[in-house]
Design brief:
Elements lengths: L11 E5 L3 E5 L4 E7 L2 E7 L6 E4 L6 E4 L5 E6 L2 E5 L4 E3 L2 E3 L6 E4 L4 E4 L2 E2 L19 E7 L2 E3 L12 E7 L13 H32 L1
Antiparallel strand pairs: 1-2, 3-4, 5-6, 7-8, 9-10, 11-12, 13-15, 14-16
């Protein structure tokens, strides 16, 4: 029903031509809309985005959500739906989920993620299951999964990682350290030098005979 000569007075118990609704019917929420310098009251069945309904003995009102990036809230301090691009977590809105929680994209919520323990110490530097005989090797460290995620689709962080390391013993005890590739290169180089020396020696002998 309309109360007063203006459509803006719909649902009002009392209404002003300039300010709209002043009091609302039972169960309706009083919402104070602002447009530039002007403000006027409306009586609504539900509060608009960014507001929540606060029921009081005097009059039901639409109060603004005080949570940043909240689209709709249950109370002043608990958001039920965040704005686009934000994840909901315990009544708050986040660009990214807090540590220990994973993003559930279909619902734009943060759920309990995979929990892992502390990293172990780095292991022994080795290569080809040997701890000597090479200049460089790899060392590895690991960590355990303490708590599995709530959803199977949420991946756990890596639980093992390796890095390059320098061998503590380049030469194995009782043996000589060699690099096969470089040894072959040295032998080939030495052979080429010998061949060149022999060739130059042959040329020298031939030239010497001619001069005689």
């Amino acid at each position: 029903a309309n109360y007063g000569p203006n459509p803006i007075c719909k649902g009002c118990l009392s209404c002003s031509k300039d300010n709209g609704c002043i009091r609302c019917q039972h169960k309706l929420f009083f919402f104070l809309r602002r447009e530039g310098m002007r403000q006027y009251g409306e009586c609504l069945h539900s509060c608009p985005s960014g507001y929540y309904g606060l029921r009081t003995p005097d009059m039901n009102r639409c109060s603004r959500c005080r949570i940043e990036n909240c689209d709709s809230c249950f109370s002043r301090d608990f958001c039920t739906k965040c704005k686009t691009g934000f994840y909901s977590h315990r009544g708050r809105c986040f660009r990214g989920c807090p540590a220990g929680f994973a993003a559930l994209e279909e619902l734009m919520e943060c759920v309990e993620g995979c929990e892992v323990g502390q990293w172990s110490e780095w292991g022994t530097c080795s290569r080809n299951n040997k701890t000597c005989g090479f200049k460089w090797g790899l060392e590895t460290r690991t960590r355990q999964i303490v708590k599995k995620p709530a959803k199977d689709t949420i991946p756990c962080p890596t639980i093992a990682e390796s890095r390059r390391c320098k061998m503590a013993m380049r030469h194995c005890p009782g043996g000589e350290w060699r690099r096969p590739a470089k040894t072959k290169d040295k032998k080939k180089k030495k052979k080429n030098l010998m061949e060149r020396a022999q060739k130059q020696h042959s040329i020298f002998l031939a030239t010497d005979k001619t001069s005689q």
